[in-house]
Structures are given as C-alpha cells and as structure tokens.
C-alpha cells in the first residue's frame, strides 16, 4: 500500500470519526431539547395539526420572496469582483449550498456553491469563497442591527445582547478592508489565493443596507407562522422576528457540530419568540419554521434547475433554427 493511499484512508477514517461524533452530539442535543420541552408538546401538537393553511401559505410565499431577494446580494458581491452570472445560476448555487448544510462535515456548504459555479465556467475558486465569507459576514452584521432595533420596539425580550454585540463588533472588524484582505488571503491560500481584494466601502455599506432590508422579510414569514398556530403577534414585532431569524441563522453557522444548526437554531429562535407569544405557539412556529425553510430551499433549487434547463432548450432551438 502506497503512502498516498494510506493518507487517503487516514483522512477517510478521520472524517468518519468527526461525522460520527457530530451525529452523536446532535442526538444528545435533540434528546435534551425534547425532554426540556416535554410539558409544552401536549399543547403544541394540536396547534400544528390544525394550523391555519392560509397563514401557512402566506408564510411560505414570503419566505420564498426572502430567498429570491437574498440571492441578489450575492450577485452584487460577485459583480464587484468581475464575476457576472445569470440569476438562475446564482439561485441554483445558493439553494444547493443551503441544502448542503444538512450534510455532516461542515465543508459541503461552500463546496456545493463552488462546484455549482464551476459547471458554468466560473473557475475563480478563491474569489467565490471570499464572496461567501462576505455574504455571511455582511448579512450577519445587518441581522444583528435589525435585531437590536426590533428589541428596542418589543422592549421586554430576554436576549443575550452582550454576546450578540461582541460578535457583531468582531465580524464588523473582520470585514474592514485592512483586516479582511490579509485574513481571507491566509484562509484561502490552500485554494490558490494570492491576494484577496476587499470590497469597496461604498459597495459594502450598500450591501449592509440591502441585507438589513431583507431580514424583516424573514420576520414577516415568521409572523405568519406564529399566526398559523394560533398566535397573535403585533405587526410591530416583525423587525424583532426578523432579528430573531438572523440570530438563529448565525447560531446555525457557529454550531458546526449540528448539520444546518439542527436543534441549536430551533432552541435559540424558540427562546427569542417567547418575548411575543406563549410557549406552545413558539414551539409550533419553530417547528414549522424549520420545515418551511427546508421546503422552500428545495423548491427554489428545483426552480433554478428548471430555469437553466429551459434556457438550454431555448438555445438549442435557436441553434437549430439557424441551421
């Protein structure tokens, strides 16, 4: 057995150990959450069973709109680096990476997006990875800002403001041009990065504003999910709900041991929802939130694939007509 083969087998064994440990940790976490909420399930299950279909459909439509708008931010980042791709390609790549979060290991989310773009001729892997880092960082900072505004509106929420503020400051510091370039270059050097140019300040600030406007869309989806299971949140709570969605997404990224933040994201969102609704409504909406997120991501991935195939068919017909 050659040295190269032994290295490959060692990496596979290490990967299996990591994935096994992640799955065990996830099982323990979900079991603990189920036990902690055992007194709430009895009231939450009937609410799920009799969920209002009109509010549920509205939530799905709003969530789909959020994702469709969110993709525009990534397109803007890529365009700033000279990479221009059709919207349908970006949609497929983005949704593929979202669903890849469910695969244990943590590397599949960026890998899925890189592979999806390579199929369409985009070979600048370091730039694509840098764009993913920028997207995550800018949307996180914007989401924390939206949460703080929503928190001020709601008033009596029990939220970890100090850790959130510290995290926001850390990410904002890492996004500063003088910091992002060297850090990204070091992180992406294994992928061939020699120099990573930071975004122009005007572009970065415009994207911060853009992402700050997208999070309330996610909050509106959560608003209708709460209504679907019998809740009656105030319309003024939508910014807070958008911020809660942002916090859940941040926690999902940081909890590398849980595929797509499964369980950890739900726990954080559930805790924040208690500021505006009761326990049973919060639990029902949290469960529906995970299901609708997965459903919408899968549906939009399929839509992206169909749009790409349709465009290819149109090109083939145009080529045939010219012959």
Number of strand elements = 0
Specify the biggest β-sheet: none
Helix content: over 70%
Number of structurally distinct domains: 2
Q: Describe the global form.
A: globular
Describe this structure in words.
The protein has 323 residues and is mostly helical. It folds into two domains: 36 residues; 282 residues, no CATH class. The chain has twelve helices and no strands. It is globular and about 60 Å long.
Annotation keywords:
globular; 323 residues; 2 domains
Task: Describe the structure concisely.
The chain is mainly alpha-helical and 323 residues long. The chain has helices spanning 3-36, 38-49, 53-80, 87-100, 108-118, 125-154, 161-175, 177-188, 201-228, 238-254, 264-273, 279-322.
Layout of strands and helices, then pairs:
Layout: H1 3-36, H2 38-49, H3 53-80, H4 87-100, H5 108-118, H6 125-154, H7 161-175, H8 177-188, H9 201-228, H10 238-254, H11 264-273, H12 279-322
């Amino acid at each position: 057995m050659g040295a190269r083969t032994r290295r490959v087998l060692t990496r596979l064994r290490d990967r299996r150990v990591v994935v096994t440990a992640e799955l065990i940790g996830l099982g323990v976490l979900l079991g603990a959450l189920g036990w902690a909420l055992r007194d709430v399930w009895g009231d939450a299950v009937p609410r799920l069973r009799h969920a209002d279909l009109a509010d549920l459909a509205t939530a799905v439509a709003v969530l789909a709109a959020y994702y469709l708008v969110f993709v525009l931010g990534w397109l803007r980042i890529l365009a700033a680096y000279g990479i221009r791709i059709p919207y349908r390609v970006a949609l497929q790549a983005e949704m593929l990476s979202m669903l890849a979060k469910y695969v244990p290991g943590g590397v599949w989310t960026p890998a899925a997006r890189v592979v999806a773009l390579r199929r369409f001729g985009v070979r600048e892997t370091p730039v694509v990875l840098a764009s993913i880092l920028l997207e995550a960082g800018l949307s996180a900072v914007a989401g924390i800002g939206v949460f703080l505004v929503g928190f001020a509106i709601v008033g009596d929420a029990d939220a970890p403001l100090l850790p959130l503020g510290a995290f926001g400051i850390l990410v904002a510091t890492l996004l500063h041009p003088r910091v992002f370039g060297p850090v990204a270059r070091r992180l992406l050097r294994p992928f061939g990065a020699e120099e990573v140019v930071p975004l122009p300040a005007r572009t970065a600030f415009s994207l911060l504003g853009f992402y700050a406007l997208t999070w309330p869309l996610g909050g509106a989806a959560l608003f209708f999910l709460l209504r679907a299971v019998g809740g009656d949140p105030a319309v003024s709570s939508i910014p807070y709900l958008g911020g809660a969605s942002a916090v859940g997404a941040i926690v999902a990224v940081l909890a590398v041991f849980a595929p797509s933040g499964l369980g950890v994201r739900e726990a954080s969102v559930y805790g924040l929802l208690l500021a505006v609704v009761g326990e049973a409504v919060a639990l029902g909406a949290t469960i529906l939130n995970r299901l609708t997120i997965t459903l919408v991501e899968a549906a939009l991935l399929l839509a992206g694939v169909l749009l790409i195939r349709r465009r290819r068919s149109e090109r083939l017909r145009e080529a045939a007509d010219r012959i």
